[in-house]
Structures are given as C-alpha cells and as structure tokens.
# Entry
Amino acid sequence: MDLYDRILELSNCGYFCGQILAILMLETIGEENPGLIKAMGGLNGGVGFSLGCCGCMTGGACILSYFTGKGEDTGTDDPQHRPALKEFTEWFEKEMLIEYGGTDCRDITAGSTAKRLEYCPGIIAATYQKCMEILQERGLLP
# Structure
C-alpha cells in the first residue's frame, strides 16, 4: 500500500492530520503508542478544530521533536532539534503560502469539508515525507 492510500485508510477510520502523522511515524519505527495518537488529536482541524494553525504544521513539529527533543529532567535537546524544526517550518510556511495562501486550516480549506477531503491527504503525505527526509539527512531515524 502506498503512502497516499494509507492516509486515506486512516482517514476513513476517523483519524485526522495530527493523528495520521503520528501513526505513520510510529509504523515507520515499529512502535505503538496509543497515548501519543490520542494526544495528537488535539492538533486536528487547526488545533482543536478551531481552523487555526494546520495540524500538519504542528504535527510535523511534534514528529521531529519526538526524535530530537528533551525527554528527561536531566536530558537536553539533540543539537539538531532547532535546526530540524527551523527547516521544517520554513518549508511548510513556504509551501502552504504558495499553494493555499497561508498555514491555518481556514486558509487552506476555508472550513469546507470538500476542500479538506481534496487537499488534506496530499498535505499530510508531503508533511510526512518532509519530516522523514529531515530526520534521515541528520541520521536521526533508528
């Protein structure tokens, strides 16, 4: 099954952007984490379905942070944490501005279910691919 078909399958199961990104990432590294998938649901629909910042932008940042962020009291961020996030957010802002006029769900879909169904699977796929590219280039994938 290709990436786009997997995204549609997950969407048909009732998952949205942030959750789909988390599921794809977990599948890639062979882990399960239902709590993470639930938590990523808060990013869906532009943070809590407010049509604010696209869940792919926030979800992509979360995926990168999963590999690079501080996770223990005595730990520190990986040195690639901020550079990876910067590369991703600059890419996302540029791509969404060119294609849709902004990075908020209201810019991308204007609250239209038809536009969400048309645009979001491709945005999810592009976001996931960009995150994996950034992680691979930095040697951060297990």
The chain has a mean pLDDT of 95.
